[in-house]
Automatic annotation (TrEMBL):
Residues 151-198 are annotated as: Domain III. This is Holliday junction branch migration complex subunit RuvA. InterPro entries: DNA_helicase_Holl-junc_RuvA_I, Hlx-hairpin-Hlx_DNA-bd_motif, NA-bd_OB-fold, RuvA, RuvA_2-like, RuvA_C, RuvA_C_sf. Residues 73-92, 108-127 form the Helix-hairpin-helix DNA-binding motif class domain.
Amino acid sequence: MISHLAGTLEHVDRQSVVLDVGSIGYQIKVPASVLNRLPALGEKVKLFTIQVVREDDISLYGFLNKEERSLFSLFLSVSGVGPKTAMTILSGFPLDRLVGAVAQGDITLLSSISGVGKKTAERIVVELKEKIARTYALKPSEMAEGIAGSRTTISDSISALIALGYSPRDARDAIMKLKIEDERPVEEIIKEALRVLV
């Protein structure tokens, strides 16, 4: 198994990159969260990889750190979650927010990700909650409250926008554009999100 690849970034498209390692080009699928943090073409980069073998496909998936790779593997262990869905989930929110959402059973936040329905979100929580706690060494208080205090506020804000008629994806994208880092009233967040959605 290829654990990581370090080389020159040769090509980037919407779902994958080509990494030149010793004059061999490796095509590696990456989530949007990785695409947004890659260096310029021609620069050196190291990706932590996992190889997924299926009947009709053998693909490499790459991440900028071991924690993202571990979370991808955990999502793959969930019944009904394949590589495509796992990549979509990792593209939806930053790693710490996803870890916190699973740890505190935040079905609303998880199901707001495009392609992740309520049943899939529930399976993720049921099957991964304890594994997430062990893998990321979460304390009981973090399991109950999440890693960041703003998570419940974000989830409530997404729910409110959905109730106003916006799609889960539009609601999530609008909230993410606000880059909320601290506790703020839900009403204030919704007002700002509505301006983004106009």
